């Protein structure tokens, strides 16, 4: 089954690059077209929620609260499922869910409330953030930049002061993800102005090859598991044959 875990435990830079591009795109998409709400990370939404409630604008504050709650729900789901169902290929499942949801968002009627879009995007971003967490041993985020920028500078300074090439490599990884995120935001702004809500189909297209990569990876994993099982079944038979030959020799 395709839901078995990947045999590769280290995801490629390409996967993280695509999800970082999508992260930047979605941030620009929701802010530009859907109520000025940031869905990828919730710091700004918490501040805006507090400001609106203090000022008595409860209706305005609720749109930020909904985004926060959707984000929390996504973290809960993406923590429980992989830990409870260890055979589930969670990165593959997340990618499928994200593609389907992004396509669905593109066809939400213009007359519908922005609530449907930014709540869905907040959920997707939290699941994505909590799923794709390490690139070649380096912990990073694909949906926001604050810590990535910090790590870029910090490892660069360490590399210079300690003359350590490994620190330069870590700095480069973080910088690469930051640039991918920024590129996604730039594309998101231009696409939103030109295509409106349909521009989000670009995100679905970008991660479709990632899904294909995960499916291929899982197929190989299943084949390896079957081969290992067949070898394990054949081993006792071989031992039995060897025992029979040894008995004949003794006689």
Overall description:
The protein is an all-alpha fold. The protein has one domain: Growth Hormone, Chain: A. 76% of the residues lie in helices and 2% in strands. It has a two-stranded antiparallel sheet. Helix 1 runs antiparallel to helix 5 and helix 4 runs antiparallel to helix 8. The termini are far apart.
Write the layout of secondary structure elements.
Blueprint (H helix, E strand, L loop, with lengths): L12 H21 L9 H12 L3 H27 L5 H17 L8 H17 L2 E2 L2 E2 L6 H17 L2 H31 L5 H50 L1
Helix pairs in contact: 1-5, 1-7, 1-8, 2-3, 3-5, 4-5, 4-8, 6-7
How would you summarize what this structure contains?
The chain is mainly alpha-helical and 251 residues long. 76% of the residues lie in helices and 2% in strands.
CATH architecture: Up-down Bundle
CATH topology: the name is: Growth Hormone, Chain: A
Low-confidence stretches: none
Distance between the termini: 49 Å
Say how many strands there are. Answer: 2
Order of helices and strands: HHHHHEEHHH
Count of individual domains: 1
């Amino acid at each position: 089954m395709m839901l078995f875990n990947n045999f590769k435990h280290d995801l490629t830079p390409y996967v993280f690059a695509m999800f970082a591009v999508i992260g930047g795109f979605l941030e620009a998409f929701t802010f530009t077209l859907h109520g000025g709400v940031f869905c990828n990370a919730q710091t700004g939404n918490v501040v805006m929620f507090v400001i609106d409630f203090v000022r008595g604008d409860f209706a305005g504050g609720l749109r930020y609260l909904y985004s926060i709650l959707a984000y929390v729900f996504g973290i809960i789901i993406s923590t429980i499922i992989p830990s409870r169902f260890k055979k589930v290929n969670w990165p593959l499942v997340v990618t499928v869910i994200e593609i389907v949801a992004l396509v669905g968002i593109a066809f939400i009627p213009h007359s519908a409330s922005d609530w449907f879009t930014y709540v869905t995007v907040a959920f997707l971003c939290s699941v994505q953030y909590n799923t794709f967490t390490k690139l070649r041993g380096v912990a990073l985020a694909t949906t926001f930049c604050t810590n990535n920028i910090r790590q870029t500078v910090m490892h660069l300074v360490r590399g210079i002061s300690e003359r350590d090439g490994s620190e330069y490599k870590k700095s480069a990884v973080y910088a690469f993800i930051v640039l991918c995120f920024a590129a996604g935001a730039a594309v998101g702004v231009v696409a939103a102005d030109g295509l409106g809500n349909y521009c989000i189909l670009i995100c679905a297209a970008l991660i479709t090859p990632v899904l294909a990569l995960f499916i291929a990876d899982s197929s190989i994993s299943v084949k390896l598991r079957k081969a290992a099982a067949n070898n394990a079944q054949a081993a006792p038979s071989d031992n039995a044959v060897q025992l029979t030959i040894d008995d004949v020799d003794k006689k």
